[in-house]
Design brief:
single chain, alpha/beta, 434 Repressor (Amino-terminal Domain), Immunoglobulin-like, 4 domains, six-stranded antiparallel sheet
Length: about 700
Amino acid sequence: MNLKQTGELIAQLRTEMGLTQVQLAQRLDVTDKAVSKWERGKSLPDVALLSRVAAELRVSVVELLSGEPMNVARSSNLDEDDGWEREAAQATPLELQRKDPEDLLVSPYLFGSNLEHTRSCLYTGLSAQMVRNRKFAGKPTACEGCAIEWFPLGKRAVFALDEPYTRHGEGYHMKRTTECNSVSVFNPRQGETVGMGQHGIAISQGQPYLFGMVVKTQNPVEFAVSLTDRAGKKVYCRTTFTGEGADWTRFEVELTPQAADPDADLRVSWEKEGHVCVGAISLLPKDHFHGMRRDVVEAMKELGIKVLRWPGGNFAGEFNWMDGLLPVDMRAPFQSYLGLETQPHTMGYDYSEINTDDFIALCREIGAEPFITINPCWNTPEENAAWVEYCNGDASTPYGKLRVQRGHQEPYNVQLWSLGNEFGYGHMEGDNTPGGYCQIALENGKKMLEASPNLSLCSSGPYPNKEWVELSAKPLAGISQMISQHYYGYAPHYTDLATVEEEYNRCLASVSRMRDLIHQSRQWLEPSMRISMDEWNVWYAWYRPSSVTDGIYAALALHMLMEEAEKSGIALACHFQAVNEGMLCVKPDHVSLTAQGQVFSWMNRWHVGNRLCSASQEAVVTADREGRMSATVVNAAFRREKPVDFSSFGPCSEAVLFSSDTVLPPSSFTQANVLGEVAAGTFQMPPHSVLFLRFPSMN
């Protein structure tokens, strides 16, 4: 790595784009002084910023760090430089020709997604847990002694953090910072109400909730649990239980509020004089699915996700599967390696709510193939092989027996495994050189294959990168036939009406960049090696509202992946990621599909399992076993209509248009049945729209 070369490349690319240092800094949410230091070779962007800087400058992270652009040809008709010519070309009638289908099937593995414990994917997303900081991580604020997110009850009560209830297991090689606390409450006066509460609990009328609490006490204590309004005046429901004993004990009661309130209080109180320690608190809807929201699980099922990658992503670098063998209340919160991965949703902590059994249950519920990423650095090859054995071994193996003892008789048969995540970028601790990583991956992969010989392994690296291909991918080919490749498109910055079209086109042009980088990897790989495009999306999708721009980007990307799958050897592709980061928008009381989710779901149902007839970024046509043809057409133009001629297919049996009068966030597609408008075999597509067509068999 040469700081001077990297700095010179940043300056060169910024200048070519016509940006000042101030303008680039504004796009990256940093100071112009930081940009100046980069360009002078005095420092590098923080690791958390590298991908974003690369996306802004339209290069890969590898190019950025090496200081050498790869000069990959940019051939897309969405390239930014051809402005009005592109619009004019897209206004030219698109004629879809009926073709006999090929033997190539549209693989379900192209319609994968990720489940990573980042941002609001789990917390305030998939997780059904309704209380925040339920295991009391972090330090108290406001000199009150009570844990963050909680407020104390009782004017004379003494609050403090105490000895931990939650713990990690011993000897797990953990380098992460854990916060294992309990809340100590001393009530100095008999008959005075003390306790703790939390605001902002969204409750529904008549919905039963399960309240759980881990406590230890000096003497028997009657605890009152209630759901109230924010002032504590209106009591929606209340129940009591008696806790006693010097040892940690978990109690569970049911609460059914008689009114709805999006901002209710959960209050736990008692009047007994003496000392009480609270180890963990939980509040879940009674109908939760393995600690997950039923409505979010159903929405994931509606998307039709065919492959689900877990636990990351970057989060895989902190995760230890054996933590999940502990009861959920006893899994200690730990800080994420990258603060932005969990901020602001969990104060930088993950609470280890989902374990392997929960993940497999989710996969089976939504019909997805599980795809697991190991941590090859903090966890030993033996520990990772034990994970494989836990998933795939029968009752005659030690960890297969453990799975059976935990209530899961049949093996999970997890075949897809990734040997780490994004090595070469520094997100995962360990040797980030190609040779060093190769050795680590080889040791882990061999042990894992001993536990289950028929695994499909995927190696990691900053692809496309010729050095990593030669020193890592090829030497690992004996155990791993796939390499992981990631790509995030340009996230538009909608700050000025005058630049909306420019930003929109720039975002869509990055789909072509993804194709170019796939082609570059393909040139260096052996023919037998396959690409796992297991993270793709618009960059920083999680920090801004979703929009139709993202939906058109996803439509073009999915078309491109279907077109390139066989030609470029793409084994699978996983959108990053479904929940609250692109495809599903989760609110306390409902879940909705974003524009990306609408496109993903419909293209999935329209094409997966069909034989491919023709494919381009503009249009894909497939045929099912009965000869029925399905077509999807994208008009990516910002302002021009696109005439589409599909008369060669005969009468249309279904025609659905996804369109919008804006590309600005927040926005989603309006769905309309346009069958009556396509009777002549032609249709005038509005700008930034997607058309779904289906034709009956002509056999």
